[in-house]
């Protein structure tokens, strides 16, 4: 493997590294630089130091967005993981045991296939779909039923204190299936003997879940939490398409990505938008580091 | 447990302990517990399946209705199959154009991602050279950065290259942003391949390039399939990047962008049945593809998390 190695190595790396440096590394580096300027795209950028960051502190929309990320960051992983864990447990060990082999409930294959499907759809498409589902008159899926039954329509996306939760529900709707499959894979790798032994000792299904499944699944749960947390910091497509006025009503559902997009490509405040990008970056990194640090615990070898 | 522990450990006491702590409850409680849990579980599972299926099914139904039906009887079957809704969506609302654009962009970008990703991953995984680790970590660090951070500079990089509002620009950007995960995943995969095969190839006078394309790539097929599925679905679903990079060229738009635009700009006098038909056009192919490749798609998409 020695002769002619370097031409080959360079030949193979040239295109990918060039693409990556030009379109990924350079923009990331420039983002920090632009965030220190008042650039609006027309004249040459002027250095303003930390002015953009100082303005961020007084920006109501920025704080609203951060707050919404906080809500999503707690609620999205909690709800999704709780539902997915429950279903994964039912699908894998919820049924009767035959010949010492734990089985899922009847039809578990069908459920797994159906639950996973939303994961295949684009978020933007799902957002359009739920715009129809949530419509505030009799043409909406939910309100069509409610109004037939004589109830007042629920203004899912129009009421400020309901809008964010309506969006969250859609995110959960899409995510659950993915985590059901993920947790199922984790549960399948737990040896059947452990369940047998626990059952021999008279453990109930509930004990089985909390004392056997959950601790042995800890690593997978941690991965799920980080993934969902990162998803909670994104949420651009769903907010941009589903919410009223892209982030409304009156900023009630806005997220940082939405504010970055608006400031950059509607108001042409490139410096300010970049400062928001940097803030988002540090929030994401802090979250990932904190999660990995706090959830660190001895993983159980089996 | 406490009363027992004071008793002398006679053989008779041991089974009694068992009875007290578990077996007794098991004797009476176990079958009904199983039935109750299985029953509740079935209800919960069925409810969730309905929640997933109904919005999609309802969209399919509505795509055949006219506006009056959509408003007056959202829950009935359409009076007739109005295929003209689809014709309107496909041509007048440009969904056909958007669909084709998505196919072109994702076709090229996934091919490019897999080609360049596997080339770089292979070299980084199996060749020792100066700078190897630096380049590897440069790629992997890309996993930690949110795309939004780069959005503004990226827009100007693409603009200055004259690639704004072109499919070429979008394809190159897709490839670049898909490389970190592709390389991270495939490098780990190439490392696991046996080196004896590679050595045998070299002894037979195989060039490094031929060795890669004719020996190593076929060996890595399972990993390549997973990653291809992962990239196709990820790039097909992209909304943010085309929104920024193709904003002024409506004829170049991809499907997500096009359909979102129809929906966002639909006023109250909008063509609802056309929108439902457009939505169906976007969803139905995914159902068909998913039905065929269900197993591969599930393992492909979860591969990232299991690693």
TrEMBL record, chain A:
An example Gene Ontology CC term for this record: plasma membrane
Cellular compartment(s): Cell membrane
Keywords: Cell membrane, Membrane, Transmembrane, Transmembrane helix, Transport
GO terms, biological process: transmembrane transport
Coiled-coil residue spans: none
Pfam family, one: BPD_transp_1
Cross-referenced InterPro entries: ABC_transporter_permease (IPR051393), MetI-like (IPR000515), MetI-like_sf (IPR035906)
Membrane spanning residue stretches: 7-29, 71-93, 113-134, 165-190, 225-244, 270-292
Record flagged with keyword Transcription: no
Domain ABC transmembrane type-1 stretches: 66-291
Family statement: Belongs to the binding-protein-dependent transport system permease family.
The protein's name in its UniProt record: N-acetylglucosamine ABC transporter membrane protein /chitobiose ABC transporter membrane protein
Organism of origin: Micromonospora avicenniae
Lineage: Bacteria, Bacillati, Actinomycetota, Actinomycetes, Micromonosporales
TrEMBL record, chain B:
Database matches in CDD domains: TM_PBP2 (cd06261)
Transmembrane segments: 36-58, 98-124, 136-158, 170-190, 211-233, 272-293
Keyword terms, alphabetized: Cell membrane, Membrane, Transmembrane, Transmembrane helix, Transport
PROSITE patterns: ABC_TM1
GO biological process annotation, one example: transmembrane transport
SUPFAM superfamilies: MetI-like (SSF161098)
Origin superkingdom: Bacteria
Domain ABC transmembrane type-1 residues, every copy: 99-293
Gene3D superfamilies to which the protein is assigned, alphabetical: MetI-like
Family assignment from sequence similarity: Belongs to the binding-protein-dependent transport system permease family.
PANTHER family, A to Z: ABC TRANSPORTER PERMEASE PROTEIN MG189-RELATED, ABC TRANSPORTER PERMEASE PROTEIN MG189-RELATED-RELATED
Name recorded for this polypeptide: Carbohydrate ABC transporter membrane protein 2, CUT1 family
Organism: Micromonospora avicenniae
